[in-house]
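Q: What residues go here?
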């Protein structure tokens, strides 16, 4: 009888993780290294193990991951996303317990930049918004590196609503 294998792809920021799960002893291998060798920070290890702990599957599956792109934080998030998707493939009933902590989340980080640019364009061209600005101020501040947005309250709420969906 063939060994059961479950595959999933996780994404976070610019990181992509291909996850393969097989029934086993709980060994986690990332790019041919153990999780302890690959991630130095305990928080990254915790992020990777979070879906397994929430679903009480620690020690039940051997996990092999190929991850590339981004930094350690993004890679840990991509691996977590891939493990979550693989667990849902194994047992779709786990979705409710994972959804309580927002684990099967969709990746929206690439859309935030275009949303901020769109809000910026509306704010700079709208006569009604321009009339509300105090004299001598632009009324908005968009820093591309950090995606920090400081706009009028109704524009901030619009960006937050799009960001959380």
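A:
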């Amino acid at each position: 009888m063939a060994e059961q294998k479950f595959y999933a792809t996780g994404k976070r920021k610019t990181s992509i993780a291909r996850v393969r799960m097989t029934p086993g002893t709980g060994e986690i291998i990332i790019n041919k290294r153990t999780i302890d060798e690959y991630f130095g920070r305990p928080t990254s290890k915790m992020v990777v193990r979070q879906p397994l702990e929430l679903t009480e599957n620690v020690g039940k599956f051997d996990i092999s991951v190929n991850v590339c792109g981004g930094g350690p934080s993004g890679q840990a998030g991509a691996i977590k996303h891939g493990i979550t998707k693989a667990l849902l493939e194994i047992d779709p009933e786990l979705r409710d317990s994972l959804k309580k902590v927002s684990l099967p989340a969709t990746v929206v980080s690439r859309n935030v930049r275009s949303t901020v640019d769109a809000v910026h364009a509306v704010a700079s061209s709208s006569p009604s918004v321009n009339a509300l600005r105090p004299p001598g101020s632009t009324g908005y501040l968009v820093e591309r590196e950090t995606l920090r947005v400081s706009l009028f309250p109704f524009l901030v709420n619009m960006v937050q609503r799009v960001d959380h969906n």
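A: Context that may help when evaluating the design: The chain has a mean pLDDT of 78. Strands lie at 6-12, 15-23, 28-30, 33-34, 61-68, 141-143, 148-150.
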